[in-house]
From TrEMBL:
GO MF term (any one): peptidase activity
GO terms under biological process: proteolysis
Segments crossing the lipid bilayer: none
Gene3D superfamilies xrefs: 3.30.70.360
Stretches assigned to the Peptidase M20 dimerisation domain: 2-150
Phylogenetic lineage: unclassified sequences, metagenomes, ecological metagenomes
Protein name (record): Succinyl-diaminopimelate desuccinylase
């Protein structure tokens, strides 16, 4: 969880807007430290390890046999463009980090929202990491990027759950690959 606090309580936006920075804007700026919002690529090098060639070859082989299986795997809306090609999508799902916003608080429902500069915005994020990345090192890197030198000197509070490692099967022995 990442909580950005700018006020002790909400203040009418006609008074505070343009004077007090928005907690939502600051949260967006913080997220841009870890994810390129145009591509979804995670920025810290730690979260972008080299993918072993065996798995690249496997993704290409799987894609050539199943013809882009992930393009049909999800209930996407008409016209949505997916990232990459078939093999790239397989690698993105299995070997690349991804960031998801899985909960938010501090923002009223659209039917209830009013002209208030809110005191805080809290976001729960989930970070999927590649199998070769140490989960504690990844957590430490993300916490450091989000908490160091916050924009405008905002109060940034971070709570982490227990991190878990990605998983990958061992590369089969050569005799099994030749069978």
């Amino acid at each position: 969880r990442v909580n950005v606090k700018v006020l002790e309580h909400g203040v009418h936006s006609g008074e505070a807007g343009g004077v007090v920075p928005s907690s939502f804007r600051i949260l967006r700026q913080l997220l841009s430290r870890i994810e390129d919002e145009r591509t979804g690529e995670l920025i810290p090098q730690l979260l972008r390890p080299e993918i072993p060639q065996f798995f690249i070859d496997g993704a290409n082989a799987l894609d050539s046999q199943l013809r882009d299986p992930l393009a049909r795997a999800f209930p996407i809306v008409d016209g949505l463009a997916l990232d990459g090609d078939g093999a790239q999508r397989i690698l993105a799902q299995t070997w690349k980090s991804s960031l998801s916003a899985i909960g938010i608080s501090g923002i009223p429902d659209v039917d209830e929202g009013g002209n208030v500069l809110r005191a805080n915005t809290q976001l729960k994020i989930s970070l999927r990491i590649p199998p070769s990345v140490d989960p504690l090192a990844a957590q430490d890197a993300i916490v450091e990027l989000l908490s160091n030198d916050p924009p405008y000197g905002a109060l940034v509070e971070i709570e982490c759950e227990e991190p878990a490692a990605g998983w990958v099967a061992n590369i089969p022995a050569p005799w099994l690959m030749d069978a």
